[in-house]
Design goal:
Layout (H helix, E strand, L loop, with lengths): L13 E4 L22 H6 L8 E6 L2 E6 L19 H21 L1
Antiparallel strand pairs: 1-3, 2-3
Length: 108
């Protein structure tokens, strides 16, 4: 059986519980390759589309699916910049900054 809990607001969560006897609700069937299909009414309610990613966790015997949101890479180009960006240099600078911060915290 399926137990579904949806929180509207900051995040939407769908919870699947196994081995329960509850009132009839939409159900999912696990296919041969472990795939599931989320009913269209739930996809519309949660604004899920083809290709969207979900975060999957197990909590207290429940399978929890949460919309992952947009990957940061999808936002590329959304902020105007003056010229070309050297992402390798930016990553190196961030890595060095984090390393210095960790060293400083360890020395405290």
């Amino acid at each position: 059986m399926l137990k579904m809990r949806v929180q509207i607001g900051m995040e939407a969560i769908m919870v699947l519980r196994s081995h329960t006897r509850e009132s009839p609700m939409p159900s999912l069937r696990i296919g041969r390759r472990g795939q599931i299909t989320i009913p269209s009414a739930l996809r519309r309610e949660l604004h899920l589309g083809e290709g969207d990613h979900m975060i999957v966790t197990v909590r207290a015997g429940e399978l929890v699916l949460r919309p992952a949101g947009r990957p940061l890479f999808d936002l590329r180009g959304s902020v105007p910049v003056a010229g070309p960006q050297d992402f390798a240099a930016i990553r190196a600078q961030v890595t060095e900054s984090r390393a210095r911060r960790l060293i400083a915290e360890a020395e405290e």
